[in-house]
Amino acid sequence: MPELPEVETVRRGLQPAMEGFRIDRAVAHRENLRFPLQKDFVARLTGQTVTGLGRRAKYLLADLSSGDVLLMHLGMSGSFRVVEADGETTPGEFHYPRSENRTHDHVVFDMASGARIVFNDPRRFGFMKVFPRSEIDTEPHLKGLGPEPLGNAFDASLLAKACAGKQTSLKAALLDQRVVAGLGNIYVCEALFRSHLSPKRKASTLANRKEEPTDRAVRLTEAIREVLGEAIKAGGSSLRDHRQTSGELGYFQHSFKVYDREGEPCPTCGGTVQRFVQNGRSTFWCPNCQK
Q1: Is 244 helix (H, G, I), strand (E, B) or coil?
Q2: Residues classed as catalytic
Q3: CATH code given to domain 156-285
Q4: Residue 105 DSSP code
C-alpha cells in the first residue's frame, strides 16, 4: 500500500500532464475497480478541465471546472503511466511490480495536453469516484482524516492532544489515519527510530496531564516531518519497482535505518535491528535506542 511520499510522487508526476488541461475523452474499460464506478462517471469527466491536482493523505484529488472532484486511490497494485508523443513515463510505481498486461488498463484519460493517462491495476484494490467539491467535508473516504503531517497545522501540541489518554501503542496510534493522515508502516518505523521512541510505548505518553506535549511529542513530530520530506525528495521508496516520472527508481529505501533491516547493525548504537509483529504488521526497531 502506498504511503504519503509515494502518492505525492505520483501527484507531482501527473501534474504537468493533467493540471490546467481538459479531459477530451475518458474511457472506463470495466464497470468496477474495488467499488463499482458511478454510472455517470465518464460523462462527468469528459470535457472538464482539471483546475488543480492535489493530495489528501493517500488520496489524489483532481478539481474539475464543473465543481466536481475526481478522487483516486491507488490501492495495492494501481499505477499510472503517462503516454506522450515522445514516449511513456510512469509516475510513482511503488511496492508492487507494475503490470505490463494491458488488459489491466482500466481507466484512460485523453488530455488536451496531448497526453494519455492510463490507470493500470491488476488486483483492482484501487478506486475512483466523482463527487461535488461542496461535499468534500462529508465524503466518507475523507471524513475524519487527521491532519496532514507536512501541513502548517501539524505540530507537537496537535499530536499530543490526539494521543492524550490513548492506551494503545504508539505505533498503532500513528497508523490510525484519524490521528495523522498518510502515514504507513515504513515511515512510522523510521520516524520512531529517529525520535528514539519504542513502538511499544503507550501513545498517551506524548502528553502530560494537561494534554500538553512532552519532549517525546516534540521529537516525534520533528522526525515525522524530516523522514517524509527526505522520502519525497528521494522520489519515494522502491521496495519492488517504484519509479519516478522520469523513469528513475525512488531511492529512499537506501536511507532506511531500521525498516526491512532485521539482523543488521543499528546505525546509532551498533546493536541489532529486530523485527516483531505488531497489530498484524512487521515492526522494525532497535531495542537499545528506542525506549
Answers
A1: coil
A2: 2-3, 58, 281
A3: 1.10.8.50
A4: E
